[in-house]
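Fold it.
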Amino acid sequence: MDTQRLILFAAFMLVSISLWQSWQPPQTQDNKVAVPNNTDSKPQSENRDDMPSLPVSNNSDTENQATVSIEPEKKIQSGRRLHVKTDVFNIEIDTIGGDIRRVALLDYPVNVNTDPSPVILMNDKSGLFYISQTGLLAASKDSPYAPDHKVQYQAEKLNYELGSNEQLIIPLTWTSADGQFTLTKTFIFQPGKYEIKVEHKITNNSDLAWKGYLYRQFQRINVEDKNKSKFIHTYTGAMVSKDGDGFEKIKFKDMLEKDFHSSNVGGWISFIQHYFMSVWIPPKESKENYYSRVTDRNSANPHYIIGTITSEKVVNPKQTLILKDSLFIGPKLQEHINDLAVGLDSTVDYGFLSVIAHPIYWLLTFIQGIVGNWGVSIILLTMVIKGLFYKLSEASYKSMAHMRKVAPRLKSIQEQHKDNSGEKNKAMMELYKKEKINPLGGCLPIVVQIPVFISLYWVLLESVEMRQADFMLWINNLSAPDPYYILPLIMGISMFVQQKLNPAPMDPVQAKVMMALPFIFTVFFSFFPSGLVLYWVVNNLLSITQQWYITKKIENA
């Protein structure tokens, strides 16, 4: 009896610790990091920290890493702004560098109750600096043609709108002073898509071959999502693909400590945060060198850069080369991102239980496609999961019912042998054997279900479809806590009822701990998204019904 209680209590604590660790934000990294000594003998003025290093040749022993300090955010130059509107975006593109400086996601309000304005995912304003940049680097320092993200582009007009067109094409052009070299950066928008096609057309009308590289990068500061719950933490930082469908996370604190370098064929680089992300996706056959940089390391808000740079490209005299990429900026909708690049669905981070979480997500979206309400889908999903574990739960409740039935006899044995633990344990084991009771029979089913509970927790937490999703009555945002704490209160009451259906612990201290759990979980769940609390409430109500039926059946036998 005591052993069973201890195991059940440990199971509860395992869930609690797992969820609590999910709430905790990472420790703040001290920005006072020593800047690496510049061992490069070349003049520092030739390098800038907001630029990628040239890819290193195979016979090179050292990497050409720039270590000079970088221009802070206030010195980021701006030219004229192009305003682009589609059915999903409001975007601002600066003629300096052709940078994407601001992105508003029209289908995603900041808060359905208090702030209906769209989420601003990218912005070059103070406090939220986050932009996308591209440019060319010349392979030779003697080359006059190196239009990086500092050059001034020319645009046909300042305002663009997708309208009813199949696509919206926005070309930006830079021409060298001698007129012999032209770079045309073209953005292509399509209806309903968060994927932007980006083309770089390099036209070399000079008498010499041009050799160089194309880089694409994101530059941002480390800022917490102001709309995120203080008690629920999800990963915010960089991710890059690895061979096959693998990936690697690069945290902001890791970038501060050391620049990142790797290479891959194709792949992708990304900054991700809760629900949203930005991704550069080169062609599948392109040899790419990934890198990270940090600018102005000792400032209060250093800029973090994650980028990718091509292998050397050659444009012969009087020739043209077109380089095509994809840029994704938007919500982590799995049905949209799965087809963009191999392994990109890993940006929806389900942790080490992904193998269980992905089928749960598929089932949840399948049900939602039928009923059209995410709250109802959670209820039906809970019923399906409960049905799958019905036999395991039945075994658990039968064991608890038998324990409840013999509880008076166990208490009598305990009182009779209170001064002799050996005799007490022997008498209890004889009673278990006589009544054919496995004292641990109620534990295994619960332990088996814990990975499913945690996986579902991450599915509901990570799924952008749940963000701002309406249910019914006062619950109009399943991703936010219940504003009136009604669901957490119902959940606490249901846990209390379950406690009453279970056999009471014989140890008074253990009894007090177990009785405190409903109150503790009620407080915890007050900060949980209401979608998660809804699952737990429905699961508890189904468990109470099943346990009550089994208990009565055994007690009346």
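The longest helix spans residues 530-555.
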